[in-house]
Amino acid sequence: MKLPVLVGISTLAISIVLAGLAIAQSSGPVQSLRGAEIEQSLPADTVHKQLEGRIARNYRQQPPLVPHSISQYQMDKRTNQCLSCHDWTVAGERGAPTLSMTHYLDREGNQLDSVAGTRWFCNQCHVPQANAPELVGNDFQPSNVVR
After folding, report:
1. Which keywords has UniProt assigned to this entry (predicted)?
2. Is the pLDDT of residue 1 over 70?
3. Residues 6 or more apart from 52 whose CB is under 8 A from it?
């Protein structure tokens, strides 16, 4: 009883694989994601300038945007280079904005002397801005415009 069932399942599986291969072959040649042949050289994308200076927020509770490049900043589980200027202990002497006190609260709301682990990776919320074209259309308006 077991042998005919195994033979039937094997035959069905082989038939499905062969049908899939036949469909894949009939769908046409492989197309490049870059939109050109492998041998063809494409021009490099233009480099967009980093926007400098503070950028206005578009809605309440929006995390501030980073007004400088962070491309060389180290940020891992042991090191956060943002804190070398923005931690409350050094922000005044560095002339940098201090982190919000919410960054020093743990999950239970207890006050900490150092940045909470849940707020350690700054670029989860705070992003640098560049003067680059939109990748997708956007009709967003700031909250103070829409009433």
Report:
1. Electron transport, Heme, Iron, Metal-binding, Periplasm, Signal, Transport
2. no
3. 67, 68
Domains of the chain: 50-135 (1.10.1130.10)
What are the pLDDT digits (tens) for 83-94? 999 998 999 899
Residue 67 vs residues 64, 72, 96, 126, 127: alpha-carbon distances, Å:
9, 14, 11, 10, 9
What's the pTM value of the predicted model, to 2 decimals?
A: 0.56
Q: pLDDT value at position 106? A: 92
- Residue in this structure with the two tokens 């700054």, named with its chain if needed: 122
The answer to whether 67 touches 52, Cβ cutoff 8 Å, is yes
Comparing CA positions, the residue from 57, 50, 51, 129 lying closest to residue 100 is: 57
Instruction: Print burial letters for 94-132: b (CB count within 10 Å at least 16), e (below 16).
Output: eeeeebeeebbbeeeeeeeeebeeebbebeeeeebeeee
Supply the DSSP string of 42-99, one letter for each residue: -PPPPPPPBP-S----SSTTPPPPB-S--TT--BSSS-BTTHHHHSTTTHHHHT-PPP
Name the strand (E) or helix (H) holding 132: none
Check if the beta carbon of residue 80 is closer than 8 Å to that of residue 120: yes
